[in-house]
Every structure is written in C-alpha cells, then in structure tokens.
TrEMBL record:
Gene3D superfamilies: P-loop containing nucleotide triphosphate hydrolases (3.40.50.300). It comes from the Eukaryota. Its EC number is 5.6.2.3. Residues 19-85 form the DNA helicase Pif1-like DEAD-box helicase domain. One of its GO terms (molecular function) is ATP binding. This is ATP-dependent DNA helicase. It catalyses: ATP + H2O = ADP + phosphate + H(+). The keyword DNA repair applies. GO terms for biological process: DNA recombination; DNA repair; telomere maintenance. InterPro entries: DNA_helicase_pif1-like_DEAD (IPR010285), P-loop_NTPase (IPR027417). The keyword Phosphoprotein does not apply. It comes from Araneus ventricosus. Keywords: ATP-binding, DNA damage, DNA recombination, DNA repair, Helicase, Hydrolase, Nucleotide-binding.
Length: 89
C-alpha cells in the first residue's frame, strides 16, 4: 500500500491560529510536533516575533542542542528549566 503524499503545511497558515489563541488567553502551554521539513523552526521564529511585540511572555526551547541552534534565542529545555538526569524517572 502506498500512502498518498500530503502537501507540506504552510507556516503562514499556522501563525494566525496560534497568535489568536495566545492573545485571547485560551492557552498557556503549546507543544509542536511535526515531521522533518514541516517548517517547525520557521513557524516558531515567526510566532515568537509576532507575540513578543505585545505584552506576552514566551520561552521557546528545544530538546537537543542541534535543534536549539535553529531557534531565536538558542536555548535547550534542560538549560532553561535546570533539568538534570535526576529529574527524569
């Protein structure tokens, strides 16, 4: 069986929905998971630029150092939240 190819998501379609939820106070924690090439980093950098213009506080972190180098701010979750191996079960 061959899966039908899906069109790549357009970053400009995602941003307005998330900005609206953030500005309305609907959400306080967002998790973004998508396959490679889905423009996650571009989306996050655009989203952060838009919401940080207002009175919103946001922290963007990545789990790996490699991923963190692509984000504006370049921070890993373990460095921002002081996570250690003892923090994990």
């Amino acid at each position: 069986m061959v899966a039908k190819a899906q069109p790549r998501p357009n970053v400009n379609q995602w941003v307005p929905n998330w900005v609206e939820k953030i500005e309305s106070g609907e959400g306080d924690l967002f998790f973004l998971a998508a396959p490679g090439g889905a423009e996650k980093t571009s989306f996050l950098n655009i989203l952060l630029a838009k919401i940080l213009r207002g009175k919103v506080f946001a922290i963007a972190v990545a789990f790996s150092g490699t991923a963190a180098t692509l984000l504006d701010g370049r921070r890993t979750a373990h460095s921002v939240f002081k996570l250690t191996t003892e923090s994990c079960p």
